Amino acid sequence: MASSSQPPAKKPKLSALDNLISALNRLGVDDSPKLSPFPVPDTDELNLPFGLGASVTIRPGIGLIGNDEEEEAYYQEWLATHDQADDQDDDDDEEELGDNDNITLGQDLFTLEDGEVVEATRYLGDEWVQHIRALYAVGPIPVPPNMAVTPHDYQLKAAAQAHWLCESRFKGMLLGDSMGVGKTLAAILAMYMVKDQPGFSMVVAPKTLCHQWVQSIESAFQNGHGLTTHLFEGSAKLTAHDLLALGVDVVVVSYDQVDAAQRDLRTFPDRLDMYLNDKTGFVRKPKRALAPLHSPFWRLIDMPIKRLVLDEAQVINKRSGVRHQAVKALFFKAVIQLSGTFAHNKWHDFSGYVDFLSGHPFLTHRAFMKAFSTYDYSGKTERPDLAKTRLLQRFLQAFTIARPVDIVNLKKCPRARSFFKLESPAISKEIVDWINKFNMGGDDEAVKLQQETDTGIDSSWMGLLIKAQLASIHPLLAKEREEMDHQDEGTDEDASHWHDDGADWKPEERSKWLKRVEDTEDLYHGSKRLRHFIEVYQEIRTFLPGRKIVVFSQFLKFLDIIAEAMKRDGIQPLRYDGSVEMRRRPNVQRDFKAADPAIPLLLTAGAGGFGLNITCASVVIQTEIWWNSNNEAQAVSRAWRQGQTQEVLYVQLFAEDSAIDKMMLRVQNRKNTVNSDIMQAIVRHPGEKPDIRELRLIPHLPVIKLEESERGIGNREH
């Protein structure tokens, strides 16, 4: 008989990260798990990290042709994920058909610029497919001489494809490589390819990234062998002739500066007319608008911007936006649009990018929506069904290049949601209930509920949501918001004031606020979120002592509270937000890189949420849920990108009993399902062939939306 005295099996050795997760799970209340990997199973919602989803809305029971497995999968996912409630912010973008729109159910027709009407499948047929295949067959350019960095093959190929598309009918392209893959260098190479042509190229970027662009362009090549730059920061004396005389290869400018320059030119006739017709003598003679970026001088000498590079193009994707219009008014030959999240908020964000391109019939947002939306019986737009999704994918494939993040062989990014319970969740639930009843019952019900709850809140739905979120974060923020409501009755500061960059705060306001925080004896009172954040931070420091930590919040004032709480514990965090002058921000990055790992970097979503490179950090903590999961992905990608040598731990704090946190997740998920599926056929690995999917004209039968009283009508007695 064999001996049973076997040595006990060795327990698997746990990593520091495993031990950390175990420790974090012990935090909080009750016996529920406190740290869960994404997605978190839930009976009401599907949590999709980083916008990764795989379903779009189609009509149940309609459009399932034959035994097509893909379409059947679509239907099953529709059943699993469809939510009848539309996003609040979709209302402004809904299109309704007028009497003269002539949409015929069961047909997909495109109206060309000359008025010709063609079938969509014919327009996007064989010739279109040949163009897509030719785009994918474009080979990489040779590595230019005297480069100070070594580009990847996929960056060389992207530069070649960008050049090919800029010379094509579209006069531009969309480069949608995942965040951290290296779109900047690909764009620099594309600008280098036209270096010897007359004129200059231009990079337009968020103001926080302009200095970084100058540095990236100048450091890509050895001294004297690359592209020369000029950072345009606005000047009352600089003319278009002066700008040309600089003789630089690339002008770098912010979206704000482009808008300001175009505004001066646009408003000058009115200001001059006001001066000429003034009878009082008080109106000053306006200065002549030089507007060197938009000057007619460029058209007069026929010298367009060679390559217009739009970085983080998602920030100007709304056609009617003033910055979008200001950029479009520039005189340019071809445009390269960069974004790691083209489907940033809604599926029809693509309309804004298409507006900068040539060679297509969708000259208005309305034309785009008519082509790719599905309509219900009343003429109201719906999310694209399968047929429309395939049309949109085919259309975008002709000028869009996008590669996934795994092409750079990054280490893993474990992502987890750390749960806790609020001490007083009733406030946020009360406000969310108010909003829900407002949507369902109209103004009368809303007024009634407002009287019942006596919340004292304004009528702006976004103001209500922000107030609910602030109440779930810290009582000081909720109190501050109430005071602001009473001081600015009828105004809506909302997202621009609270989801900051914070640069527009008046010094006296900020000093008063910081004094209030310093004078608060117990910062933890009433804020389980702050307490839980500190606990999570301490556990990370215990189990991963050598890791640098970055902390993201949408709210500058919550970072102020966190900074004060840490200061009382002997830790002085570094700051990267609107309270830090633009010229000092590169110094903050250098200081953080050299600092002890115990010193965290606190960033607002507005100031540090995109474009920043902080690969010296390998832990990212997000203090609250954000409305848009793509913004969350942008933030995490500040650390999880090229140059990162460690796994990046991403921890997101989530109040499991907070009505507003749950509501924000539902909004995220509804947006993710459609956007992710559109990109599914577009994102390809280098060397992969294009995913050309069959176009099918599926009859667009109307969706019948029953009133509450009509549901279950089949069970009525006759």
TrEMBL record:
Classification via Gene3D superfamilies: P-loop containing nucleotide triphosphate hydrolases, Tandem AAA-ATPase domain
Superkingdom to which the source organism belongs: Eukaryota
Ranges of compositional bias, category Acidic residues: 86-99
Domain spans labelled Helicase ATP-binding: 164-360
GO biological process: DNA repair
One protein family per Pfam: SNF2-rel_dom
Keywords assigned by UniProt, alphabetized: ATP-binding, Hydrolase, Nucleotide-binding
Disordered: annotated segments: 85-104, 482-502
Domain Helicase C-terminal span(s) in chain numbering: 529-684
GO cellular component terms attached to this protein's record: nucleus
GO molecular function: ATP binding; ATP-dependent activity, acting on DNA; hydrolase activity
Xref: InterPro entries: Helicase_ATP-bd, Helicase_C-like, P-loop_NTPase, SNF2-like_sf, SNF2/RAD54-like_C, SNF2_N, SNF2_RAD54_helicase_TF
Protein name: P-loop containing nucleoside triphosphate hydrolase protein
Source species of the chain: Chaetomidium leptoderma
